[in-house]
Every structure is written in structure tokens, then in C-alpha cells.
Amino acid sequence: MSEGATAAEGGQLNPMLALKIGKVVVNMGLGEGGEKLEKAMTVLKSLTGVTPCPRKARKAIRDFGVRKGENIACVATIRGPAVDDFLKRAFESMKNKIKESCFDDYGNVSFGIKEHINMPGTKYDPTLGIFGMNVCVVIERPGYRVSRRGERPGKIGRSHRVNKAESIAFMKDRYGISLDVKEE
Q1: Cα-atom radius of gyration of the chain, to the nearest Å?
Q2: Angle, CA of 57, 61 and 67, to the nearest 5°
Q3: Is-contact 78 86, C-beta < 8 A?
Q4: Do the beta carbons of residue 147 and residue 156 sit within 8 Å?
Q5: Each residue of 11-21: pLDDT tens digit?
Q6: What's this model's pTM, rounded to 2 decimal places?
Q7: What does each C-alpha distance from 93 to 33, 89, 98, 115 come to in angstroms?
Q8: Which of 21, 74, 138, 161 is the most exposed place for a label (fewest CB within 10 A)?
Q9: Selection from 71, 91, 73 nearest residue 21 by Cα
Q10: Of 68, 81, 101, 125, which is closest to residue 181 (Cα–Cα)?
Q11: pLDDT, tens digit, for every residue of 103-141?
């Protein structure tokens, strides 16, 4: 089943095979808490428009001065119409090029942005500093809720899952992304 939908009787496309973006998760891992984490949360809120949540360290790492349970990162999840605006700016900061290795076998896309000031519409504030971030995009089809619902959750069939080729085509069509191929 190519291009996300197939023709049925009467030339209608199957709406259950159309791809959509389920959510975008933006993560800033700092490795330390305190004032630096508060500044990162301020930057993340201004970039995404969503209130970020702090994340705790899973284990202590003595060499880095990290204690178990200490807040060391922040995460924001974007859903709905705000996704398109954020992704357009994020891809523009990367010159609309993504490596093919950023796509996984389940249709998800993950990439990093080295400096948040590279995103269009963002100005450098010396009191906040510069932060990098990881962006994870989940691409899904209608019906994926079946696996997440509370009562009687089910499995998504293999033929209904999104694969790597479909997600690459979807991102090219929707955001004008080109694959970055580096010669080695």
C-alpha cells in the first residue's frame, strides 16, 4: 500500500490509511539542575508554546555530580495545530535536510538541533544562553488509539503500521524535506 492511501470503489481514497503526525516531543537534556534547568525550561516554553515538564535522573553518576532523582532535563510534547508551525521552523533551521538514518522502521523521525537560536524567529538572549535539543516526531494512522486506550487495548496490525518509506514520502510532501546524503 503505497503513498498512504489506496483507491477503493468509485475512486475514493481510504481515509484510514492517511498519515498524520501524532505528536512531537522536544527534549533538552542538561545533565544538571538548578538555574540552568530553569533557563532551559523558559527557552523551551518560548519555542513550543507548551509548558515543559522536568525529568529526573534515573541513577547517580558520581563523576558528573548527578544524584538519583535530581531534575536534569526538560521535555515538552506538542500536539494539534501547533505541530506544523514548530516543525516548519525546526526543519528550516536544518536547511530542510535530514539524514535517512533519522527515520526508524516504524515511521518515526528523530533529529537534533545544536543551537536553539538557529530556529527562525528566535533571538539570542544573553541572560538565558544557548541550548540544544532533540526532536522526535511520531507519525501514525487513524486507529492507533486502539493500542493506547485504557479498556481492552489491542495491537496494531502489521499492514496498518507506518514504515520508513511511507514516512519519508510523507515528510517530503508535507514539509519539503530532502534527504541529506553525505559521500564517505
Answers
A1: 19
A2: 50
A3: yes
A4: yes
A5: 578 898 999 99
A6: 0.85
A7: 27, 6, 11, 9
A8: 161
A9: 91
A10: 101
A11: 999 989 999 999 998 898 888 888 888 999 999 999 999
